[in-house]
């Protein structure tokens, strides 16, 4: 007779637990729906707009900051090159430059793209050194009158802290194989032979820089001292030196792209720019951008992720549910 209240209590407790976990599961799936709802509605909106008023798709890539790794931009260029929907590419550059290898990597990738589709470059503030190396590959370059453009040259900086190290009575010993292995070390003075060797590296890179820019911009290599002397030019000065084609803004770049695609000025262009993932999407993405090629497998990855979370959730529920045996 005393066991019945206990069973009733256990039954009530079980019922409460079931209701609690039911609410938790509903909240969990509601959060997932809310996370993806903007993406879904945005996609539906784009589909409707495209059906009502078709637009020409043009890729847009913003190149900013110090250029030390080409992979991020290279993937974007490759994706746009492979897409039959993308008819051209606008590069918006705001960078002081970076490493020559990175510049050459993107320059060569853009050359392959340029063979199939037009490239228009627009500069807002700065496009110098390695950044200009990249820009030079474009079919057409537009900048503001006060934009900083050029700085075609190569720089190797050799800091020397030997005297500072000596003042602290710290000594360094080198164990090396190869005469020039320590050339450029900040812990010692460079010999005349080492300086000559490093200068040869800079000179060879400089020649490659001049050759690629001259070829792309149809400039005379013989007159390189006027446009490839390391100077930074304003947009006005760069126009006179034929380093850019026009003074203007982003709107002018869009208009130029329409001309190169032989479109009427009234034709609308839709700019396609790969976006970085945010929120829950960060758990699903494979790399540092939510690119077109990875978006094809998003549904599969999400299904695996949601299934795994749900299984762990149900296991936790089972562990916390009181036994009735």
Q: Can you tell me about this structure?
A:
By secondary structure, the protein is α/β, with parallel strands linked by helices. The chain folds into three domains: 3-49 and 293-320, no CATH class; 55-151 and 231-274, 2-enoyl-CoA Hydratase, Chain A, domain 1 (Alpha-Beta Complex), CATH 3.90.226; 153-229, no CATH class. The chain is 50% helix and 16% strand. It contains eleven helices and eight strands. Strands 1, 2, 3, 4, 5, 6, 7 and 8 form an eight-stranded mixed beta sheet that branches. Helix 2 runs parallel beside helix 3 (100-114). Residues 286-300 have low confidence and may be disordered.
Short summary of the structure?
The protein has eleven helices and eight strands.
Using DSSP, what is the number of strands? 8
Class derived from helix and strand content: alpha/beta
- Main sheet summary: 8 strands, mixed
Oligomer: single chain
- In CATH, what is the homologous superfamily of the largest domain? 2-enoyl-CoA Hydratase, Chain A, domain 1
Shape: flat
> How much strand content do the residues show?
15-25%
Give helix and strand order, one letter per element, not per position: HEHEHEHEEHHHEHEHEHH
Number of helices: 11
- Count structural domains: 3
Distance between the termini: 18 Å
Helix content: 40-55%
What CATH architecture of the largest domain would you give? Answer: Alpha-Beta Complex
Q: Give the averaged pLDDT, no decimals.
A: 83
CATH fold type of the largest domain: 2-enoyl-CoA Hydratase, Chain A, domain 1
Estimated radius of gyration: 30 Å
């Amino acid at each position: 007779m005393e066991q019945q209240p206990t069973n009733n209590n256990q039954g009530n407790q079980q019922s409460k637990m079931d209701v609690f976990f039911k609410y938790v599961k509903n909240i969990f799936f509601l959060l997932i729906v809310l996370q993806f709802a903007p993406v879904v509605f945005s996609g539906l909106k784009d589909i409707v707009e495209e059906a009502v008023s078709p637009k020409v798709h043009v890729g847009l890539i913003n190149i900013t900051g110090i250029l030390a790794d080409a992979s991020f931009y290279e993937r974007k260029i490759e994706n746009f090159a492979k897409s039959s929907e993308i008819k051209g590419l606008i590069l918006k550059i705001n960078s002081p430059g970076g490493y020559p290898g990175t510049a050459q990597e993107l320059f060569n990738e853009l050359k392959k793209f340029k063979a199939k589709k037009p490239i228009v470059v627009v500069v807002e503030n700065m496009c110098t050194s390695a950044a200009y190396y990249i820009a030079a590959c474009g079919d057409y370059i537009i900048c503001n009158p006060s934009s900083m453009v050029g700085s075609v040259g190569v720089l190797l900086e050799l800091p020397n802290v030997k005297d500072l190290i000596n003042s602290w009575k710290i000594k360094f010993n080198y164990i090396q194989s190869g005469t020039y292995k320590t050339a450029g070390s900040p812990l010692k003075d460079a010999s005349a032979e080492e300086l000559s060797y490093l200068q040869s590296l800079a000179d060879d890179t400089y020649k490659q820089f001049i050759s690629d820019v001259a070829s792309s911009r149809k400039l005379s290599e013989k007159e390189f001292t006027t446009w490839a002397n390391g100077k930074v030019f304003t947009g006005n000065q760069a126009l006179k030196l034929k380093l850019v084609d026009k003074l203007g803004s982003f709107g002018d770049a869009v208009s130029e792209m329409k001309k190169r695609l032989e479109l009427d000025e009234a034709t609308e262009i839709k700019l396609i720019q790969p976006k970085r993932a945010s929120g829950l999407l960060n758990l699903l993405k494979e790399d540092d951008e939510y690119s077109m090629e990875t978006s094809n497998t998003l549904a599969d990855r999400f299904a695996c992720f949601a299934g795994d979370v749900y299984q762990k959730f149900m296991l936790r529920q089972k562990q916390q549910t009181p036994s009735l045996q």
